[in-house]
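Entry:
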Amino acid sequence: MNHPATNIKKPASFMAGTPLEKPAVVADHRNTKSTSPSTRLKLIEFRKKFTLHVAERVTILIDNEELIISMTKLEAIVQPNKFEAVKEALSELGAAGMTISEVRGHGRQKGHTEHYRGREYSIDLIPKIKVEVVLADNLVEAAIDAIIKAAATGKIGDGKIFLYKVEEAIRIRNQERGAAAI
């Protein structure tokens, strides 16, 4: 089935909701340095009309050129008591997987002091949770908003979000590549 404006080819199995046999790619206008301005405009229009989900696998051919979606690794450092809310928010967005680590560190607050049995203790490294997720670029802003909404208290120590470009992702089991592997 093709969309006339952008020549989008969706396999019949995609339309029926069954899994595809081979990985496909999704287009993103920010990762198309070699494409013409008219092709980039077509991609922007496509993105306005359709919201692509990470789990969807679709091949987009524009002017007979196959384009690959770019991916971003989102790394969020949050307070341990906010982790469940962040995890639920990312799951609702469709984040297929995430890596969670218990970490310790400090930012501008440089730790704090606590009193225990009459003594004062200095705690330099505060426990935090690090959440790592690799997403298709079209979900990154929504994920950032969801994390901020779930983790923000308005106080020092709420955490940080870092973004890294991901060149490639490969699923070891079946060698799927790109957005299909995340």
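Residues 1-32, 51-62 have pLDDT under 50 and may be disordered.
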